[in-house]
Amino acid sequence: MNLTCRHLPGATLIGVSGQIDTNNSAELEKFIDRQHRRLDEHLIVDMSRLTFLDSSGLAVLLAAAALARAHGVGLHLAAMQSMPARLMEITGALRAVSVYDHVDQAVAAVLGHMSPPERAM
Predict the structure, then answer these.
(1) Are 36 and 7 in contact, with CB atoms under 8 Å apart?
(2) What is the rounded CA–CA span in Å between residue 97 and residue 86?
(3) Separation between Cα atoms, residue 12 and residue 94, nearest integer Å
(4) In the chain, N or C: fewer CB atoms in 10 Å?
């Protein structure tokens, strides 16, 4: 598994490649905790290079979704491959997240939810 991170206005974008399973799901959880510094910011996960996801990885994503919801934001999954998408579908986990075909769609959706900056008078 390889993990990357970019901080965007109002969001943290995490890229995941390879496989998430019981051997490394704790690493993903720690990475999200370290990188997602502001809990009031959306979390976007680029899953375009994630080839396998098991229940332990799913649990990490669902915990991140619950934490995001508790802070008034969301977990946005982008570009899911067929295997992880199937696991999300059959478990009903898709109800807990927002899903986008492409990362740029997720970023645009998050930026569209942000309030415009207040103007100084």
Answers:
(1) no
(2) 14
(3) 20
(4) C
Q: Please report which confidence band the pLDDT of residue 119 belongs to, taking 50, 70 and 90 as the band edges.
A: very low
What are the Cα distances from residue 119, in Å, to 2, 8, 11, 110, 115?
41, 21, 22, 21, 12
- Please write the tens of the pLDDT for every residue from 9-28: 999 999 999 999 999 999 99
The two structure tokens encoding residue 115: 């309030």
- Residue with structure tokens 């669902």? 62
| CB hemisphere CA count around 71 (13 angstroms) | 18
Complete domains list, the chain, with CATH: 2-113 (3.30.750.24)
- For the chain, count helices (H), then strands (E): 4, 5
Please write the tens of the pLDDT for every residue from 38-88: 999 999 999 999 999 999 999 999 999 999 999 999 999 999 999 999 999
